[in-house]
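Collaborator request, handled under Task 6.
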Amino acid sequence: MKSVRLIRHGESAANAGEASRDHASIPITPKGVEQASLVAGSFAQAPDLIVASPFSRAQATAIETAAAFSTVPFETWPIHEFTYLEPARCINTTVAQRRDWVDAYWANADPAFIDGEGAESFLDFISRAQSFLNRLADHPAQDIAVFSHGQFINAVVWLIERKPQIIDGQAMTEWREYEITNHVLNCCGYKLIKHPADAGWRVSPGEPKVKVTQRVPGRVYQAVRDPERQLMEERAEVLSAAGYQLKLDEDPAMYAEQRLEEARAAARSSQVGSVSENTAAELSAREVCQVLREVTFERRTMTKVGQKSWDAVYTGHFLVDIDGWQISIFNDCDQLDYCEECLSPDGRRWSFDPGDRFGADPIALLSTWERQTLERLLKAL
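Structure tokens returned to the collaborator:
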């Protein structure tokens, strides 16, 4: 059986909001180095082969694992990130500054379009991802660790899961939606499996030695766990021990959260005599987190409610409106702290409960970059 672990590079300077001179030489941050070290320590045994993209951030991430297994062959393959904008015009720009160019490119939905010298068409990008899968299948190594990039990794998994027959404008648009929905976090990714008798690849849960969740099609698993995620996994274990059957084809921690929300709703409904009405009124921390996440990627618009700015509030609750979602966020001495309450456009409500040891704060579920971006946007209101 062939096993391939796909890992996105550690946090880069661009991920942290810094301007970059060119796509290939973006370095990783100190946090990225720490993430890379954690990935290196997550391997239960040495892989047969370590592969990395030629881009410096992937190379720097892979080096930590290569150093831990110095006798393992290290190869550089053309699995670099999708460069769909002309590199020359992106010099010294940030992700935010390139947003309009990015939106225009994807709105055009032309797979053959090349933005300029040094750019790549979507057709060539997908062809490169397919060539990578073919090369993996032909390589004699059975256990391979691959360090690449978010969009490239999603292109590979999209090919496996969706099996597109033709790469046209519709397929390009569908992939973009897939890529946004399944954003791969730094030093996270997927595991690919191929049995000798299999015609193709399949996506599998992560290795048991790595603290990961079972994979749902279209959802990333995390190779490096954060404290909030660990708490959610503990929740799943508690429910399982209590006799709840957690679905094997779903993320156990996510399903555990859903079961707890249902249990709370049922408990409240038993007091007022209406299970369905209270269940409908439930809003999960995950849903609120997704709304906040979409703000950081500029897919939703956030405005303040009231006259005071974030700086003027300094310490206290700051109310924002996000496309009809009313969210109260606590400002702790000019720093983003936690989400206090949320009211959805359809009337569902979520409230922070400090006494609930299994509770989750939507802001705590954000990645470091997403949290930093959200704080910056709040301060700009």
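The cover message to the collaborator said: "The radius of gyration is 22 Å. The chain has twelve helices and eleven strands. Please let us know whether this matches your experimental observations."
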